[in-house]
Design a protein that fits this description.
Layout (H helix, E strand, L loop, with lengths): L8 H6 L7 E5 L2 E5 L4 H18 L3 E5 L3 E4 L2 E3 L3 E5 L9 E2 L3 E7 L5 H14 L4 E7 L2 E7 L6 E3 L2 E6 L2 E6 H9 L2
Parallel strand pairs: 4-7, 8-9
Antiparallel strand pairs: 1-2, 3-6, 4-5, 6-8, 9-10, 10-11, 12-13
Helix pairs in contact: 2-4
């Protein structure tokens, strides 16, 4: 295989890649993200807890796992939600099963998190959120499949699969950013 040939998901899953690397397949090209900072992980865990509390056992919330979008795209959202009945512990999630994808933006992932992935998620019919850090504050950008992006600050209540999910960005920021 030559570097100019796009990889398929079959090629991607056949790669022997160290688990400590966050590697994604975006339109047939490999994309490697640097390791995130601790605050990034704390935000992901806090969002997982908020989603799990609001959604209950009918839903599964995953951190940093592969989602197959199409034959040349495998993304790895920081957090994503599926229905429990779609859960198969031995198989990679497929885009139609994903109800929400969340990206927590780090300096090394700005372009992919702001431009590439929102477009991929929209095309796949997946609503998404992007969390951005501004100093000691967190901003949540809600990216619906149709319509305009919505910026949320402080406390917000957002719908996930028809269920209200309360997100307190200020509390999450205080915990994750140590203030």
């Amino acid at each position: 295989m030559h570097a100019s040939e796009p990889l398929t998901t079959k090629d991607f899953f056949a790669l022997d890649v160290d688990d400590k690397f966050k590697v994604e397949l975006l339109g047939g090209a490999l994309a490697l993200s640097p390791s995130p900072k601790p605050w990034h992980g704390d935000v992901g865990l806090e969002l997982r807890d908020a989603l799990k509390t609001a959604l209950g056992p009918a839903f599964r919330i995953y951190l940093d796992l592969d989602v197959e979008v199409d034959e040349e795209t495998v993304v790895r959202p920081d957090v994503f939600v599926m229905r429990s009945q779609s859960h198969d512990p031995d198989n990679v999630a497929k885009a139609p099963e994903v109800l929400l994808a969340i990206e927590i933006m780090s300096p090394g992932s700005r372009t992919n998190d702001r431009q590439v992935k929102p477009a991929l998620y929209r095309d796949a019919g997946i609503p998404s959120w992007r969390i951005e850090r501004s100093g000691q504050r967190l901003l949540l950008i809600e990216i619906p499949v149709l319509g305009k992006d919505v910026l949320h600050l402080g406390q917000a209540t957002l719908k996930v699969a028809g269920v209200d999910v309360a997100v307190d960005l200020d509390t999450i920021a205080r915990y994750a950013l140590g203030e």
